[in-house]
Amino acid sequence: MKTLFAVSLSICATLLAAQGFAADPKKEFVGSDACKKCHAVEYKSWKETYHSKMVQTKKAGILKEAVEKWATDGTNDGPTTGNVSKTPFKLDDVQFVVGSRWKQRYLVKNDQTGGLQFLNKQFNRYTGKWENYGQKNDWNTMCGTCHTTGYRIMEYDDTFGKHGRTVKDAYSEMNVGCEACHGPGAKHITAKAKDKKKSIFNPANADIKAQSRVCGYCHIRVENEKFMSAQGNPREDLPAPKVGDSYKAGDDWTKWYPDQAVIPGVHADQPADKEYVGELKGLFKLDEHAKQNKVYDEAKHHQQYQGFLQSKHYQGGSMSCITCHSPHAGKGKLKKVTKDACHKCHDASFTVEKYMPNTGQTAGNLFVRSHTFPKNPRKGGAGATDMAPPNYYE
Questions:
Q1: Is this structure's pTM higher than 0.85?
Q2: How do residues 226-252 score in pLDDT, each as one tens digit?
Q3: How far is CA 150 from CA 173, 183, 287, 367, in A?
Q4: CB contact set of 179 (below 8 Å; sequence gap of 6+)
Q5: Average pLDDT across the chain, whole number
Q6: Distance from C-alpha of 306 to C-alpha of 83, rounded to nearest angstrom
Q7: What's the gap between Cα 28 and its chain centre?
Q8: Is the distance from CB of 303 to CB of 297 less than 8 angstroms?
Q9: Is the pLDDT of residue 8 over 90?
């Protein structure tokens, strides 16, 4: 079976270059490996997080259970077709896998564009079953800003369809690397010792709201009507406003093209208690429980920022995402244990299980924790803590 994974990293790198996903063309971003020399503790602990494992090569990251059940889980057939091209694919054709904690999706080449497309099924770790997955846009032009670091649109065709399409893009590395949260590191590396600290962005030194905005750039759901995917559909991420530029940690992305981006719960005219349409339909819990609490829990995954903005924790101005979370350890500082964070301010009756119920659906019968922290929390469903750690093929 292991012969199925005989694609070397060098071949993958060549393929990426051929598809236009080259290293940062502006040479602003240097990649996380460049940070390791001076920040070994931070780098090592980051490598142990899911930020570093968002997108992996098939060889490195495919789930053992998915391989064993590739043809069928006993009830449902496994992946067989590319969602964009509608052409058949086999396990051999998978180049990258996306996710592993809750579920896993599979990327293959789209010969029509040279980009990457999803297969038609995702694997649910909780149920051990295959589920239909219908994302019909190239992955890199729909999800690129948050699944990579240093992402930028390099070429955009305004004449395609109603609003144009992304033709060519680039990024410095796969996954949420060091520079996703600290900004590009080229100037930091060459800076003189006295200028090192001011040549890089450190969320810990930013104000409370700016700290959370760094996390919010990706932990959010949007409909982008300024930039379209390779297929001409509204993107679900927020590329930098100017073609050729990249988001840099510390940028206030909430002010980018506000008339062309629907960001419920962030823009004042797009409240959380409204029902939206399209891909944003069913974004928040709008039932009687929510109306009584005046808090609208997240109903889908990766919208933690939109939940947190409603909380007293955020509105009180004393807490940010990194109050309870840390993407890595530091010199002389242990990585924060999130489940213990409540007890720094509250007694033992305050637990993440009670006040952060799993409300955001990420797969069938599987949910992500809410970040609204209401006084009267609802009951949640099963989440990541109800499963053992991922079991990779190798």
A1: yes
A2: 999 999 999 999 999 999 999 999 999
A3: 7, 8, 39, 29
A4: 29, 30, 31, 32, 35, 149, 150, 172, 185, 249
A5: 92
A6: 29
A7: 22
A8: no
A9: no
| Class of residue 363 by CB neighbours under 10 A (exposed 0-12, middle 13-18, buried 19+) | buried
DSSP of 165-229, one letter per residue?
Answer: EEEEEE-SEESS-HHHHH---HHHHHS-GGGTGGGS--GGGS-HHHHHHHHHTTSS--EEEEEE-
Is pLDDT above 70 for 375? yes
Indicate the pLDDT class of residue 16, thresholds 50, 70 and 90.
very low
Give the Cα separation of 18 and 45 in Å (integer). Answer: 32
Q: Decide: residue 391, CB within 10 A, 0-12 exposed, 13-18 middle, 19+ buried.
A: exposed
Q: Which residue has the tokens 């890595």?
A: 328
The residue to which tokens 């789209």 are assigned: 110
Residue whose token pair is 């004042």: 268
For residues 379 and 239, what is the distance between their CA atoms, to the nearest angstrom? 36
- Cα distance between residue 292 and residue 131, in whole Å: 34
Alpha-carbon distance 154 to 21, whole Å? 10
Domain boundaries, the chain: 2-235, 276-386
Measured distance CA(302)–CA(322) in Å, rounded: 16
**Cα atoms in the 13 Å half-sphere on the side-chain side of 193:** 0
Instruction: Retrieve residue 159's tokens.
Output: 């004449």
pLDDT tens digits, one per residue of 321-344: 999 998 898 888 888 888 888 998
In the chain, which residue ranges form alpha helices assigned H by DSSP?
9-18, 40-47, 58-61, 64-68, 144-147, 178-182, 186-190, 208-216, 288-293, 304-308, 312-315, 321-324, 352-355
For 164-203, what is each residue's pLDDT tens digit?
A: 999 999 999 999 999 999 999 999 999 999 999 999 999 9
The Cα 11–Cα 23 span in angstroms is 15
